[in-house]
Amino acid sequence: MHVRARPCPTSARGGLHHYRVLGTVIACDLSVRDLPPASPAAAVTIRRADGPLPRPGALVREIADGEAGEPLIRVWDGVDGITYWARGVGTFWIAPDGRNVRYTLEADACRTDVEHLIGGPVSGLALQLQGRVILHASAVVVDGAAVAFCGPHGIGKSTLVAALMRAGCPMLTDDMLPLARGPEGVQALHSLPRLKLWRDSLTALGEDPNRFGLVVSWLDKRRLTVGREWGRTWTEPVPLRAVYVLDPQDDPYRMVAFEAIAPLDAVFLLLANMYMAELLHGARAAHALTAAADLVATVPVRRVRYYRGFHELPRLCAAILQDANEGIG
To answer: How far is residue 292 from each of residues 88, 149, 170, 180, measured CA to CA in Å?
Structure first.
């Protein structure tokens, strides 16, 4: 059932709420559940538009409804900024410098959908326009350092993180991994205290999917609030120990195997696994290339091949933990 998304009451700070998202602070005129509160100043300000939004640029991404074939998500990019549209939710315009976002909502927009877009794609794109580095990756903390897993949508990053959390590792991030250069090398940052899992993954982990709310109204994917509903989260910056590129296989007799990736290949793999990589061009692409090369020069990037099956998760987790502690440590 859709819940109407309404603006939050005017606050003492000019009608804005401040939240910690993707390793930084955003300010928004809507109240967003489950986001950690923060103090100003904000890197991104998100407000309802008081006039028409700028004309969209070129269409660079479209995600369609699998059944009807109708567009669900569209993203345009141009000299006037990035425009992100979601069917039945609304339109978000992100200024070219990434510091301001203006939006319009559909009359019956679902609150959960709006919150997901603000805390995820919209903030992520805004921060990338500011030059922040965000990998399309999930990560846990192992002995005080981050271990990250990258790969395309649906490859099993979140399920692997959930299994590692069951093995005692706190979650650092799910789906979007912000990185920063620190005095001791590349630092991995916390994104959101949320984990997104399909019903079959939750069932395989021994959970009742109906205990948890939907991520968005158009997918039967469940949102777990980490630290409250499920598991533990890690909120402090930590050194990035390793990046694993997930490469599941169909062979049920396949043993877990790790493979070093040549530096140049690793750079291009990381570029392909930047968040919304299709938006990286010109100066953005040059910045992302520099960041990927710096990452490869300081952090091991390894491919992990394994048989993809829920019953194999304990074996995969044990192998990753051993490799992270011994093979690359």
So the answer is: 36, 15, 25, 12
